Amino acid sequence: MKIFDKILKSFTILILILMYLPIATMIFFSFNSTKSLVRFTGFSFRWYSALFQNRIVWGALYNSITVAVVVTLVSIVLALLMANAIVRYEYRGESIIDAFIYIPIVIPEITESLAILILYIFLGFPRGFWGVVLGHATFGATFAVVVLRARIAGLKKSVEEAARTLGADEIQTFFRITLPILMPGVIAAALLVFTLSFDDFIKTTFTRGPGFNTLPLIIYDSAKRGGVSPEINALSTFSFGISLLFSAVRLFTLRRGRYE
Amino acid sequence: MEDFLKKFITKVRRKRRLQYILLLLPAMVYLTIFFMAPFVLTTLYSLNMATKDRQFLFTPSFEWYLHAFEMEGLLTIFLRSIGYGLANTLLCVVLGYPIAYYIAVKCKYRDVILLLFMVPLWVSFLLRTYALMGVLSSSGLLNGVLLGLGIIKEPLEILRTPTAVFIAMVYNYLLFMILPLYANLEKLDISLLEAAATLGAGKISTFFRVILPLSLPGIVAGSLLVFIPTTGEFIIPDLVGGPDTYMLGNVIWLIFLYTRNWNLGSAISILFILFILAIIMVYLKYAGIKEVVF
């Protein structure tokens, strides 16, 4: 059966290569000196320099980052409080809380997005920066709760009890003992929420105001209108770079956190 | 005022139940307003609520649901969404199972291979689909290579066909099948396979009578992770597909952003959610919800 194992191995490697091929092609041709998407005619940064002279791109990048940062802050604060409540106190209502956490994760994003659009128009809530932020924080907070809850459950109670015995009050214990221990989990959750918000497309479309762009919206609009082009390849590569960086750091913090 | 605050703080210190409620309150209030309330409103709109000159007119009726059922082509699109969802799930099982099995049972460098499979997931959905457009387009890499090798004379039109949609779906969702399957197969007790061999089972019958039944929970979990988001897919049929591959997500999108018929859009949306919840309920009979998500 050696041959069978070899087939399995080659198949896995083949699929891996196919998974990377589109992304690698996109990155590769973003450095092409001509518009061709098949023939590489020489290395150049011309699409990147065109990109960074484009004011719309800068505006969208600014919006993407500010939205993601505020979403992360809001989600982490809400999730820290909620995760602490869930893990440390055993009262009834767990199934209701579970529903609050898991339903936003399993419901198709498009139905959720248009529901929130209905709310905004119903209330006359202005769509734009805060509309997008408060829309994103629903999935931000729920994903953060899932990550943090596991972390808090793994916390050793004896450390906190020691701090309390030595005279620290609840607030001191939380900020000087609990939070530092939880830090890898908090950072991992924050990075996850940041990338989810930074990459979000559907919910942003429904909650943004006119003229409010983020990077995914620009990429979608251009792909929809003009198909694949080297400029958008460059923009996508740039956006991918940011997500990759954040995810790699997240993986690293999680790994380190595990051994502590 | 200060007195009241002090009293309140001592009360909070003493009563654990109060602490619990206070900790939960911010997130629950936020999720109630921005997650639950929108769905309540959607339900009300689907039941014929209307706003006119800042006044609410609400005469409950199911007429919009009837309109949805009578809407031309909607049934086709609903069936297509389910069909694409099932087809993608099946493709992901067939392609993902050997990979998960290889990583879990045969592979020496599990962590590395798993990591390699996870990195593409760090690219957003939109970017992955866009990158795939680059490979499949008529001036793209695939056609370039095939033309260059002289295998074809004219560029193949893959984009805007169901083929492109299937390729994009498998490309985007395969990992969601591999991960739960891997988690399941990793726990597989090797001694069971030895026992089967000792008792005279061949490799093939061991697979079908021991390994496959034991990995069924993994297959079910993975199928749910693939099937639900696939049926709600918007980006893939929109970017690499065409009007004849549109799915429920695209219809909801079109109705809301272009025709602005909120009642009809809400009714379709609610029907879709009920369908998804029904599937989850069936699944919950077999496993806990926590396993659905991770």
Please report the total strand number of chain B as a whole number: 2
Number of helices of chain A: 11
- What is the CATH fold-level name of chain A? MetI-like fold
Poorly predicted runs of 5 or more residues of chain A:
none
> Biggest sheet of chain A, in brief?
none
Strand content of chain B: under 5%
Oligomer status: heterodimer
- Main beta-sheet strand count, sense and barrel state of chain B: 2 strands, antiparallel
Please identify the structural class of chain A as seen in this structure: mainly alpha
How is the topology of this model organized?
The complex is a heterodimer of chains A (260) and B (294).
Chain A lengths: L1 H28 L16 H7 L2 H34 L5 H13 L2 H15 L5 H25 L3 H9 L4 H30 L2 H6 L7 H12 L3 H30 L1
Helix pairs in contact in A: 2-11, 3-6, 3-8, 4-6, 6-8, 7-8, 8-11, 10-11
Chain B lengths: L1 H13 L1 H31 L2 E4 L2 E4 L4 H8 L3 H33 L3 H13 L2 H12 L4 H8 L13 H25 L3 H9 L4 H12 L1 H16 L3 H5 L8 H12 L2 H23 L4 H5 L1
Antiparallel strand pairs in B: 1-2
Helix pairs in contact in B: 2-14, 3-14, 4-8, 4-11, 6-8, 8-11, 9-10, 11-14, 13-14
Features:
heterodimer; A: 260 residues; MetI-like fold; globular; B: 294 residues; mainly alpha; two-stranded antiparallel ribbon; extended; disordered C terminus
Give an account of the 3D structure.
The complex is a heterodimer of chains A (260) and B (294). Chain A is 80% helix and 0% strand. Chain A has helices spanning 2-29, 46-52, 55-88, 94-106, 109-123, 129-153, 157-165, 170-199, 202-207, 215-226, 230-259. Chain A starts with a helix and ends with a helix. Chain A has 260 residues and is mostly helical. Chain A is built from eleven helices and no strands. Chain B is extended and about 75 Å long. In chain B, a hairpin with a 2-residue loop joins strand 1 and strand 2. Chain B has 294 residues and is mostly helical. Classes of the chains: A mainly alpha (260), B mainly alpha (294). Chains A and B meet through helix 1, helix 3, helix 4, helix 5 and helix 6 of A and helix 2, helix 4, helix 5, helix 6 and helix 7 of B.
